[in-house]
Amino acid sequence: MISIGTRQHGATRRRPIDVRGDRYYKGEWMESGEDPVLSPTIFLIEQPPNATLVPHFHRQNQFQLFIDGGGMLGKHAVETVTVHYAGAYTGYGPLVADGRGIKYFTIRPVCEAGMMPLDEARDKMIRGPKRHESVGPVRVLDEAGRLAAACDLGKQGEHFLLAVSDEGLGVGEVCLGLGQSMSMQRHAQSQGEFVVVLAGRLQFGERELVQWESLFVSADEPFPDLRGAEGGAQCVILHCPPKEKVYFPPTV
To answer: What is the pTM of this model?
Structure first.
């Protein structure tokens, strides 16, 4: 499976949502159905200034990519660009926006609707491994910076911001010059990889992906030929571990 997330799709699917009395906006950038095993999804959340998202958890593994504004996630400051990972049934938060508000992508290999607030749904928490990670801030590079980094990193391929674990979780960065092909290390335990363009343009077949656009490549799919377009490209790679087996419902 290869799925694409685009700015245009996000704009057409942007809508206001009410979160405990605060007006947020949500835009679906990548949609791939609702398959319970693999249905990659990306949506952009625009959290208003000074709003608080209460501590909560989700039933699927997820990454968050913080791209604008700022605030606090728990006791830690969130800056642009920060990558946060929370495994299934791992509580985190609160997420408090500062006076600028905060924008972030939620990125999951499996579609899920809604959140589970700890103050309301603690009885739905399942015992099992808990994991969260945070890396960044990752500096978004201008054209000169992208091309200079491509010269330094191009020979090495992917530069790991979070080394891939035995479970298949990792975060990497790749910078490409014009026509330079992406080289990355795939890991047997990962469900697949999200590639998100942080800056510049990424060539994928006949189309170009621009800033914040993305694609997902499942583990059973050959990795496509991705190249830097004019001006180069800076991308973040999110290696997706499968959900822990203890969190799947028992079979009859």
So the answer is: 0.93
Q: How far apart are the first and last CA of the chain?
A: 29
Q: What is the pLDDT of residues 121-175, one digit of tens each?
A: 788 888 888 999 999 899 999 888 888 888 775 444 788 899 999 999 999 999 9
* Other CB atoms within 10 Å distance of the CB of residue 209: 24
CA distance 159 to 181: 15
Which structural domains are found in the chain, ordered by start?
2-135 (2.60.120.10), 143-240 (2.60.120.10)
**Burial (CB count <10 Å: 0-12, 13-18, 19+), residue 141:** buried
H/E element holding 9? helix 7-12
C-beta contacts of 4-7 below 8 A and 24+ residues apart = 4/30, 4/204, 4/209, 4/213, 4/214, 4/215, 5/29, 5/30, 5/42, 5/213, 5/214, 5/215, 5/216, 6/30, 6/209, 6/213, 7/210, 7/212, 7/213
Residue type, 100: R
